Amino acid sequence: MKSTKILAVATLAAACGFAAPSAKADDLTLCWAAWDPANALVELSKDFEAKSGHKMSFEFVPWPNFADRMLNELNSGGQLCDLMIGDSQWIGGAAENGHYIKLNDFFDKEGITMDDFIPATVTGYSEWPKNTPNYWALPAFGDVVGWTYRKDWFSRPELRAEYKEKYGRELEPPKTLAELKDIAEFFQGREIDGTTVYGAAIYTERGSEGITMGVTNALYNYGFEYENPNKPYDLEGFVNSAGAVEGLEFYKALYDCCTPPGSSDWYMSEDIDAYKSGQVALQMNFAFIWPGVNADANVGGDKSGYFPNPAGPGGHFAQLGGQGISVVSYSDSQDAALEYIKWFAQPEIQAKWWELGGYSALRAVVEDPGFASSQPYAQTFLDSMAIVKDFWAEPAYADLLLAMQKRVHDYVIAGQGTAKEALDGLVQDWTETFEDEGKM
Amino acid sequence: MSGTVMERAANATPPKLARQIKGLSDKTIAWIFVAPTIFLLLAVNIFPLIWTIRLSFTNFRVNRANLETKFVGLRNYERILTDSDIWLTMQATAHFLFWTLFFQVLIGFALAWLINRKFKGNDLWTTIIVLPMMLSPAVVGNFWTFLYQPQIGLFNYAIAFLTGADPSSFSMIGEVSLAPWSIVIVDTWMWTPFVMLICLAGLRSIPDSIYEAAECDRASKWRQFWTITVPMVLPFLMLAVLFRGIENFKMFDLVVQLTGGGPGSTTELTSINLKREAFEKWRTGYASAYAIILFVTVFGLASIYVKALNKVKER
């Protein structure tokens, strides 16, 4: 009897010993891509650690391997990540396959409302199915493809005069894609300060998502649609419309005429390198790079300017980037992870997030009267976020993405076939995928 | 500490265990020793193979484990064998395989023949030549992308120096006509030393007495080369071709680092394509069928080749 009592007391003591620290302080691991904003988040999270007592660890993977590594982790039910800042296109698969926990009840309980965030980011990063109030993430990092240009080159009187004489307009940030191509052509192969420079660094990468994230900025603005707006998954005549074909031809023409030699497999980091080393006059890239460009010793400050993706004959859009933050359903520390999201959603934390170089999606931050003038690129960010469009976020997004990578790269970079054939082929690939998914 | 090792082992065995072992036949004891290896092979080779064959007849997707897995018969195989894109990757692989083997055998044998001669600094040159194969393929892929850079790459400058062309007028990894050759060049640079070493082993295994006898018979150097050197090195050379052939059929890391399969799909070899199907699109059933087709192809070709190799060795 005595030994039974001792055992019971020991068990209770052991249970308390194990339970107490886990209720008070957890070790949380946040998974994201390895890039500048991730470093800013590490800095920001110190405040959470101090206030909550939880210890934060971070698992950052470079962009080209980010999807492979993290989707492997999620698909295998891995417990590495408690919090995941996953790409916007993963939301459908992560929701349907049970990788993320649904956040509606938590938001209701904590008084977090999606009305407080930029609508495009809520649709892009949080909702599945799209345009329904089912939330799987809190918008964490607003991002969009935009352009950086060499303001110092644009302001040189001799170049301005030459440009005006040749094109009949001032050398200013372009309003249309056609103007953008003219500017890129103007700078291509030009000698500036004794160095040969080129027109534009654009996305051409084959392996992950690069060329798709680039070409869509032309396709959208020439009339490309993912599907019939009135009939889901009806692709024929929308993906391969006459406008879409023209848009794809435009992107190839831009690549052929106005990019640096050897730029056949370039994505974010290669574009940044080309721009910062003074090789190009224009750079296509996600907005996350702008704080780094602004602070750069070679091209920062007044030497660079920013403008949204220019309009085309079929509309004015830009490719959405960015991510939401989710709680991984396989995590043993879900309560602490939710605590992090609650902390992160606070307006003062979001304001600090923007100060550190993170693009907050909270309206209270971006609609603040001082926001537009807070950084040289802030207004461009706002203008760009107003015109975003995103790639498919279906559970089969990887099939859809890889098919597009192949079709577009084959045409734009390898010069195989015609734009019409490439987009017809894409319709065929996507139709097959949706048939396999039972959606057609 | 007296007695033989066997006696000491027998003495050290606990009497109970010794009595148990005493009752076992030699065959049983042999099986006991071999069983762990057989179990391990079954677990890590045979079971996954059978499981892959099973999956190849289904629509299973590892990222959608909650969906019902359906038996689809031969549909996956039919789709693969009728997919023109997959035939293009096969063509790219065949091009890569043929030309890498051709150059590696040619240059590897020539280097071995030169190194086999006695000269000052022989060992130093051998060490220098084998350096590339000691590097990681990922590292090699990475630094060759720099060498191939049209604006700063040494390779382009070397070609420009020799031909007078503008270094930035061509891009080895960015042009459809050059990219397949860019991966052939790098693989040849990296793995020719391996072929050279095997050929060198072959050359050094030829007894000097055979050449001395040929000299006595007044055979010319050319005749000695074709009637002694080549036939006697041939089995070694064929072995090198077999190793390199199997390795290059599954080439992945080097090419991914260099071209990522591009431009377009020009250098998308079967292993890269298979990886995309299996671990990016997560079409597990389809990718399993793809893997089985590749396995049968390699296994079939290798079997025919090994038979030919044995015939050459028997001569």
UniProtKB/TrEMBL annotation, chain A:
Keywords: Signal, Transport. The keyword Signal applies. SUPFAM superfamilies: Periplasmic binding protein-like II. One of its GO terms (cellular component) is periplasmic space. It comes from the Bacteria. Transmembrane segments: none annotated. It holds the Pfam family SBP_bac_1. Residues 1-25 form the signal peptide. It is found in: Periplasm. Its main location: periplasm. Gene3D superfamilies: Periplasmic binding protein-like II (3.40.190.10). Belongs to the bacterial solute-binding protein 1 family. This is Carbohydrate ABC transporter substrate-binding protein. It comes from Pacificispira spongiicola. The lineage of its organism: Bacteria, Pseudomonadati, Pseudomonadota, Alphaproteobacteria, Rhodospirillales.
TrEMBL record, chain B:
One of its GO terms (cellular component) is plasma membrane. The keyword Transmembrane applies. Residues 90-305 form the ABC transmembrane type-1 domain. Keywords: Membrane, Transmembrane, Transmembrane helix, Transport. Pfam families: BPD_transp_1. CDD domains: TM_PBP2 (cd06261). InterPro entries: MalF_N (IPR035277), MetI-like (IPR000515), MetI-like_sf (IPR035906), Sugar_ABC_transporter (IPR052730). Its main location: membrane. GO terms for biological process: transmembrane transport. The chain crosses the membrane at residues 29-51, 96-115, 127-147, 178-203, 224-246, 287-306. It is a multi-pass membrane protein. It is found in: Cell membrane. PANTHER family: GLUCOSE IMPORT SYSTEM PERMEASE PROTEIN GLCT, TREHALOSE TRANSPORT SYSTEM PERMEASE PROTEIN SUGA. Belongs to the binding-protein-dependent transport system permease family. This is Sugar ABC transporter permease. It comes from Pacificispira spongiicola. The lineage of its organism: Bacteria, Pseudomonadati, Pseudomonadota, Alphaproteobacteria, Rhodospirillales.
